[in-house]
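Sequence, structure tokens reproduced for absentees:
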Amino acid sequence: MTAVSRPWLAYALLLMGGAVVYVLCRYYPADLPFWMPWEFSWPTFLATFLALGWFARGLSKVEERPAAWRIACFVLGVAMDYAVLQTHIDYYAQHMFFVHRAAHFVLHHLGAFLIALGAAGPAIRAGMPSFLAPVLDAKPVRGAMNFMQHPAVAPVLFVGLLYFWLIPEIHTRVMLDAGLYDLMNWTMALNGIAFWSLVLDPRPKPPARLSSLMRALMILLIELPQMVLGAILSLSMTDYYPVYTICGRIFDMTALNDQHYGGLIVWLPGTLTSFAAMIVVLVVLRLNEERAELARQTS
């Protein structure tokens, strides 16, 4: 077997594996274990395993291999996103508000945070088929990324999406529409990765987009609105999301308790993620200053 044919064999096996999982989920959903998808999604399946495969393939091609801890962060972050989207956790998230909030905390915060720490972009690009590189460099793709990571847009978009999908009328419609539900999850995951990749970029400016001061400011800008939203949801005595009662809660819990726990997830873990990001920014600042000082001494 030639070196050229091996990648295409891997793609064929991936499609076959996805087809098997699809058939099982389509015709035998009640017989599947917890770690199998509740509702199979081809985009999620392909995005996950192609990203991991291209990353593994690209590690041997990049000039500077990422540190082992960065590799572990990336793989763990991707695995966590996959777990909340393609296991029975997704079923619980469709019937319990606090599980839904926990799943979105992973997509928008923890999983995206770990993926950003992994700094896997160069390795993924090196491992993907060469004909896809022009797609990444296309003006629409670059323009969309530049817009999402603009310093004036990124924090507004990050917090705005969190609030938007939790507007009661919109949330009710989304939870009853499979297409909108998938759109919500994808926007949260992609926005989280774009935001945290901007904030946690290990490089100094330039070539990074932002200085350490701007990164710290962005962290502060997203922290207070999240705390306010979490406090509203966890302290309110009004049930804002009766859709979970309509769909049927799977745990013996009142609507307000469900909402209060969900609010605490928005409030506390979200705030802790911001604290962790601030620590990373300060550590990166110190390391970059040390490298710059060492470069001056040796020049």
Remarks:
- The chain has 14 helices and no strands.
- The mean pLDDT is 94.
- The first helix runs from residue 5 to 27.
- The radius of gyration is 21 Å.
